[in-house]
Amino acid sequence: MNLSQAAAAPSDASIWLRPRGSNQSGMGQFNERVVLQAIRLNGSLAKADLARLTHLSTQTVSLIINRLLEQGLVLKRAPQRGKVGQPSVPMMLNPDGAYFIGIKIGRRSLDLLLIDFHGDVRARRALTYRYPDPQLLFGQIATLQRELLDQLGPLRAARLAGIGVAAPLGLGGWQALLGSAPAQAGQWERLDIRAEIQAVSAVPVVFAKDTMAACVAELVAGRGRSIGSYLYIFVGTFIGGGLVLDSAVHAGLSGNAGALGSMPLQLAPGAGAPPEQMLSTASLFSLEQLYAAASLDETAAYDARAMAQPWLTHTEAWLDDAARAIALAVSNGTCLLDLDEVVLDGSSHPTLLARLLEQTRQALERYSWEGVRQPTLRGGVIGADARAIGAALLPLHANFAPDRELFLKLLHTAAP
Q1: Average pLDDT score over residue span 360-364
Q2: Backbone dihedral angles phi then psi of residue 47, each to the nearest 5 degrees
Q3: 223-381: CATH topology
């Protein structure tokens, strides 16, 4: 689902249009953002409807619309006739009003998405690799950025307003699991990813943890439009998550709130090695390892082959373990946070994700819920693009949404 599709869905304006506009002087830019958000979330609206939704005067809305028309951020639709008085002219977002690039740097792949002002994906570029080499990756990102902008053409490329980057906070970590060279992993620990991309970009770059960016995408354009508080789980190469409380992403002290991958799967022993973390069982990397042990193509973990033989036998073994591990995390998280719901998404094929969702629901039934309420488990609606889309939404909201405080604690920003 993209932003324009989400906007067509029913929404509660009292939730999504907070805070309201103000008719006081000196509030011009804020009120512009309120009006843009009203159109984004409710579809095309006439000035009278905008005034009603935003609690701004009709005169204020009219002035704002004129400014937004001059800036090329909105367009007039055909007049609606048939009512008493002058025909109303609905206003819509101009999809070419601004553009944003979302970059997802993962442990197995790189994705760049170009989205327009509607939130629709206009173009994409992708690379896959065994392990991300920092010596090569940033040059490749610069090349792919240029390709996306060349596809737009010079006039529209000039309306690029920001770049968002999503990557794991510990991209150089878990060397033993990934089989990465210590020297290469150490380079990631010393790198400032945002600064490296800012150095080859002409617009401001913002950064967020990859699963936090995916959580933002789900909050803005998915289940978060109707759920107030939930635990978000994303099953990628490594499993991770995010936390939404009272319709706002909660990052935590170091940005790791909802870091399910690090959650232990059992009690620590009195001596010896610590218990395994969830990422060793419920990540797609674990499924890759099962395939590799059977001399099968590991990349099938991310496409439809995972649900066909000869991969299916190993997929089913992984599904059983992964579902039980996720159910344990949901049970523990619910006892701590009293969650409304849990949203599960991932980068696997939708058929595999649907099986994981169903088997996790079954695993949840094996727990005692005495003393707490079992949350509803739902599938996410964004899918494999969630991290890159979330990355692109970060600069969109920083530049054009009235509730930019929602994401400020997630971002690192810098001027070009």
Answers
A1: 97
A2: -60, -40
A3: Nucleotidyltransferase; domain 5 (3.30.420)
CA distance 48 to 28: 18
Strand-pair category, 205-209 with 160-167: parallel
Question: Looking at per-residue confidence, does 85 or 33 come out higher?
Answer: 33
Structure tokens given for 104? 């997802």
**Does the pLDDT of residue 10 top 60, yes or no?**
no
Question: Which residue is listed with tokens 């579809």?
Answer: 43
- State both tokens at 61: 């809305």
Tell me: the pLDDT tens digits for 193-252? 999 999 989 999 999 989 999 999 998 888 888 888 899 999 999 999 999 888 888 887
412, 207 Cβ separation under 8 angstroms = yes
Select the CATH number that applies to the domain covering 24-78+88-93 from these four: 3.40.50.10320, 3.40.50.2300, 1.10.220.110, 1.10.10.10: 1.10.10.10
Measured over the CA atoms of residue 180, residue 182, residue 184 and residue 185, the dihedral's sign is positive
269-324 pLDDT, tens digit each: 888 888 888 999 999 999 999 999 999 999 999 999 999 999 999 999 999 999 99
Query: What count of Cα atoms within 13 Å lies in the side-chain half-sphere of residue 51?
Result: 11
Q: Please list the residues that pair with 93 across neighbouring strands.
A: 74
With DSSP H G I counted as helix, E B as strand and the rest as coil, what are the percentages for the chain, rounded to 5?
Answer: 45, 15, 35
Q: Among residues 327, 322, 290, which one has the least CA distance to residue 306?
A: 290
CA distances (Å), 116 to each of 65, 79, 93, 102, 308, in order?
A: 20, 25, 10, 11, 37
